[in-house]
Amino acid sequence: MARVISVEAERFPIAGTFTISRGSKTEAEVITCTISQGSHAGRGECVPYKRYGETMDGVRAAIEAMRGQIAGGIDRAALLDAMPAGAARNAIDCALWDLEAKAGGRPVATRIGSAPLRVLETAYTLSLGEPEAMAAQARANAARPLLKVKIGGDNDIARIRAVREAAPASRIILDANEGWSDDNIVENLAFAAEHGIALIEQPLPAGRDGILNRIAHPVPICADESVHEAKDLGSLAGLYDAVNIKLDKAGGLTAALALRDRARELGFGVMVGCMVGTSLAMAPAVLLAQDADFVDLDGPLLLARDRLPGLVYRGSLVSPPDTGLWG
Predict the structure, then answer these.
(1) Starting at the edge strand that comes first in sequence, how are the strands of the sheet with 317-318 ordered?
(2) What is the full DSSP assignment across 230-277?
(3) Class of the CATH-defined domain 120-318
(4) Degrees, nearest 5: CA angle 163-270-264
(5) Digit-coded pLDDT (tens) for 104-159
(6) List of E strands, 98-233
(7) Using alpha carbons only, how large is the chain's radius of gyration in Å?
(8) What's the CATH number of domain 4-111, 3.40.50.620, 1.10.10.10, 3.30.390.10, 2.60.40.1930?
(9) Which residue numbers are catalytic?
């Protein structure tokens, strides 16, 4: 029986405004791919990201272009060769995993060796702003054990100080989104170390991060924009201590699993992160993150409205997805 694909663009309002070094947004724009076969249907969600040249229209068109191959029964292994890494492949790959689980009656967690699943502690993200505003965000979330703090401007030392003073008991990840430079990175790293920062994500622009091989890392440094697939890891040795794996960058759970396993082989720490999306996008990442060193799957917590049913969050704890949602 042939598979049938449908593609839908959806928007979910963000609770307030989400700001990083590259700009602000007030809604999460996502593409949902549904692949049906007989009485079964699998879903996958992706978030097109402008940083990588993706648009809503472009990603939707890329998924639609696969209609014939999906109807013809393309499998996930062949999909890796048929499409480049990115949001479009992620939506299809996750929909295929979900369809296979529902049709075969065997959960994805069992198939990838993640069962039994456990509850995870996720980071909670604070938007970039002036130090006083960021301190207010940190104070309001000071009971959370792990905060991810968006930085990447000219006043980051003041931001780090303000957040640390407002949330003295929280572990803190700093995410610069490529916003630092060779001129300030040594000073910023030293200040971060003095204030007990746990991890720093992508301080320098991808491809312009060679200095990381020549300076001390008083705080572990995690690649984000610099890593998409397993093949990228060889060039990161000596530059980064950890990698942030996101399904939308890797192009699906299949590629993300390969990236995770190769990162472990090479001695990198592993973070599993996300774009700002709904519980449908987070669900496969929760399975991927079962043994991660850092988990950043708070997308639904940043939304004013999530899908129903969605993941269950209790504070900063996220429970495994119900198979009715995904997998």
Answers:
(1) 120-121, 317-318, 313-314
(2) GGGGGGGTTT-SEEEE-HHHHTSHHHHHHHHHHHHHTT-EEEE---S-
(3) alpha beta
(4) 155
(5) 999 999 999 999 999 999 999 999 999 999 999 999 999 999 999 999 988 999 99
(6) 120-121, 124-126, 146-150, 171-175, 199-201, 221-223
(7) 19
(8) 3.30.390.10
(9) 150, 246
Identify the burial level of 38 via C-beta atoms within 10 angstroms of its C-beta, where 0-12 means exposed, 13-18 middle and 19 or more buried.
Answer: exposed
| Chain mean pLDDT for the chain | 97
| pLDDT tens-digit map of 181-192 | 999 999 999 999
Lowest mean pLDDT among 12-26, 83-97, 256-270: 12-26
Indicate the domain borders of the chain.
4-111, 120-318
How many C-beta atoms lie closer than 10 Å to residue 191's C-beta?
19
Which pLDDT score is estimated for 135? Answer: 98
Angle at 81 between CA 79 and CA 84, to 5 degrees: 85
Which pLDDT belongs to residue 284? 98
Reading the block at residue 220, the tokens are 């572990």
| pLDDT score of 1 | 83
Fill in the amino acid letter for 104: G
pLDDT at 30: 98
**Distance between CA 263 and CA 103 in Å, rounded?**
32
Statement: residue 23 has pLDDT above 90:
no
Hunting for tokens 């890392």 — which residue is that? 217
